[in-house]
Design brief:
Order of helices and strands: HHHHHHHHHHHH
Helix content: over 70%
Oligomer: single chain
Structural class: mainly alpha
Number of domains: 2
Radius of gyration: 30 Å
CATH topology of the largest domain: Serine Threonine Protein Phosphatase 5, Tetratricopeptide repeat
CATH architecture of the largest domain: Alpha Horseshoe
Distance between the termini: 112 Å
Amino acid sequence: MKTKILILFCSVILFASCSQYQRVLNGDDTSRKYAMADSLYNAGKYKKSLQLMEQIVPAYRGKAQAQRLMFIYANSFYLLEDYYLAGYQFERFEQTYPTSDSVEVAAYRSARSFYELSPRYSLDQKDTYTGLEKLQKFINKYPESEKRIEANALVKELREKLEKKDIEIANQHLRTAQTFGSYKPAIESYDNFITDHPGSIYRKDAFFGRFNAAYQQAINSLPSLVNQRLLSAKEFYNSFNKYYSDSDLKDEADAILQDINNRLEVSEPTS
């Protein structure tokens, strides 16, 4: 009996609360909407709070409460993981309230929102580039921020994602060449990777890939081009060996080099 009474009491309270929310939501009193939106936000009820804030944001522009309202409005999207809107609204907050005590937080969360939007490496990386730009801008603007270390870690992660995409593109060119016979795009892709990503964790793979692609181009060439291209491939081996003589790819690279030397030796005219 006591349990039934308790359930009934809770139901009445919940119904009354919902009814009050609907009355405020459907009413015209902006001050009540602001107060309830703030209360719901503080209670972690972000969806309901947002419904109210969306109605009153225009009415509070230029007023004293606008700064807090705009911050919790943006932050509600962020906490609900709606990162497109969070990034945009935090960016607006930065522009509108550049002297606010919350502007550094807004700047970081705007940048972090674009980081969260970055897709896996195989997809279009537009949001990754935006996230990198925003995070780097934050680091430059707030070099003493307590979020600086975290922001640098996110930058590193996004850069590695772009590097992963570029090395996979080069690898795909090599796989395609092995089927269709055009190795030049693979060599150029590895070349570009080495130039564009000087500190990459995939740099070793790019040096080896370029050497391997040049070798395969040589041995699949017209007889008149083979020796010249074998010599070019040896130059790429020298570049690989200069930086990665102790890598796990060294044995494979040496085996390819041995085959190059054997082919060149056989092709030399005998006296």
